[in-house]
Amino acid sequence: MAGTPYSKCPNGVILNCDQGVRATLYTPGDLNSQVYACFDKAKAAGITNPRTYAAVGLLYCSINSAVAGSYVVTYLVNGDSGVSVSVTTTRTVMVLSVCLAGQQQCPDGTCQDCECIVWYTPIVD
Known about the structure:
mainly beta, 5 strands
């Protein structure tokens, strides 16, 4: 909901928070300490040594919980400790406005008093 912070889930909680990712190898051990959230955004902002998801959660993701809309969280696993792997995956987070009585929730997260207008962009080949 708009205005509610969206952050990393505390232990044992799975609703209304980011459940994160788990990175494992076929061999014993894991890569969880090498997972980054929104690494690309951190680098673009001039952060030369971004910290891992375990350390800062979604700090670099620019999710504004006061503004309805969709936000993309990109997770990067960078196996730089003898494991040659770099894998990314994404999750889309929807921030929904709190609708008043009589309003309807639109697909973009906003509220409307009448039918939602959805704009489609035609695909031209």
